[in-house]
Amino acid sequence: MTTLPKDERLHLRVTGEHHTLIEQAARLEGLTLTGFATRHLVEAATRVVEHHHLTQLGREEAEAFLRALEEDEAPAGVARLTRHFGQVALPVRDEP
């Protein structure tokens, strides 16, 4: 595994209670405080960025997408998607 140079610093100020809790968690995972903080901050940041990159459809777009999935000439795998989306609500943003 290639280790990249660490040439940036991140300074945090936390309460004594938070510091104690984070130190305890790091020890339980066998990590240094820096290793623990880095691992969990990067995981959280990745989730946030991925969430914001998801495509959000307006109601009209979502309905057109579902109609396209139901077309007879749709590929075979689309039937599975249609069943899935029929069971799970699509994230739809409200129109302005």
TrEMBL record:
Q: Which UniProt keywords apply?
A: Toxin-antitoxin system
Does the UniProt entry include the keyword Secreted?
no
Does the keyword field hold Cytoplasm?
no
Task: Show the InterPro entries listed in the entry.
Answer: Ribbon_hlx_hlx, TacA_1-like
Q: Which family does it belong to?
A: Belongs to the TacA antitoxin family.
Q: What is this protein called?
A: DUF1778 domain-containing protein
Q: Which lineage?
A: Bacteria, Thermotogati, Deinococcota, Deinococci, Deinococcales
